[in-house]
Amino acid sequence: MPDLADLSLRPGTLKLFQQRGFTNTAEVERSRENGGLANLAAELGCSLRQANDLFREISGAAQPMGQAKTASQLLNVPNNNAKMGSRKLVTFCRSVDSMLGGGIALGEVTEIAGVPGSGKTQLAMQLSVDARLPIQYGGVEGTAVYIDTEGSFSPERCYTMASALVDHVKKSAEKRKTQCPPTPQWFQPNTIMQGIHVFRAHDEAAQMSIVMGLPDFLRDQEQQGSPVKAVVVDSIAFHYRCAPPGGNYLARTRSLSTVASLLSDMATKFDLAVIVINQMTTKVATTANTTDTESVLVPALGESWAHATTTRLLIASETNNNNNRTCTLTKSPNRPSGVSTFKILEAGIRDIDRH
């Protein structure tokens, strides 16, 4: 393992580690493995956020420069999702899944934004339930993590969705006995609920702590044979927007950047879908070809956050039907922009029958 003095570190970083008795990267890694970032932070005498930034700095500096590949070589190297048959997390709405190329992609961060009452949390809970769908029925057969920052997660509503999912799958299997394998014995509403792990984050510090500790939880779940395939944050903006006026804006920006980076890393490393719920805010924009201004609704947290997401979905209520929703794809690396529709029923998120 290389000595810290041989790495291209900031002078302040090198001085801090040396003062605390660290001489090489193996000692830093050992400290983190023994007790996570909390242990490293304690040994360095700094906050969890600072420990995470310092660890990432050392990890990046210790990485040797890799060998470049041509674009042609990359095109012919299948990624993890391709090896697994390009599995997607289905929404149980054919219109939305078709627009997304089969559902919410694993290995990516998907943002779902909308005004209050548009159905963001309903869709988030539906995706948590759908993460439990068996592979033989088009699912990813994993578990889910739900980080609830607003106290909006409803276990009763989630159980209703889980029961509806089980009923739907069993009825579908009954109709196609010769084509469908029998449903697994574990596939029951209670078992689905046992695979949805809810973390309540009452403030920004708790949210940061949960996200930082999540990799260890994800590894434990993998070792137990119950890999997490969906991580939901509902919502990402709540604690940042509720911060007191005049607070440390720069610190909040760094905090959000750290959370975004951690979530993106987890999506890739653990081959899971990160679904981040966001609120809307008003932005004053200049009308095209004029000097007039108008107020428009845009997802909260600004442009820097927008760049941290892979896919962005905007959902809104239809003006003539409060149960129907439109879902607009505004950002995707591999899908064209589009609009789909769904409705919110007692059973959950479903297609709209226009006939």
Automatic annotation (TrEMBL):
One of its GO terms (cellular component) is Rad51C-XRCC3 complex. GO terms for molecular function: ATP binding; ATP-dependent DNA damage sensor activity; crossover junction DNA endonuclease activity; four-way junction DNA binding. Gene3D superfamilies: P-loop containing nucleotide triphosphate hydrolases. Residues 85-280 form the RecA family profile domain. It is found in: Nucleus. GO terms for biological process: meiotic DNA recombinase assembly; reciprocal meiotic recombination. Signal peptide: none annotated. Keywords: ATP-binding, DNA damage, DNA repair, Nucleotide-binding, Nucleus. InterPro entries: AAA+_ATPase, DNA_recomb/repair_RecA-like, HR_Repair_Mediator, P-loop_NTPase, Rad51_C, RecA_ATP-bd. SMART domains: AAA. This is DNA repair protein RAD51 homolog 3. The lineage of its organism: Eukaryota, Sar, Stramenopiles, Ochrophyta, Bacillariophyta.
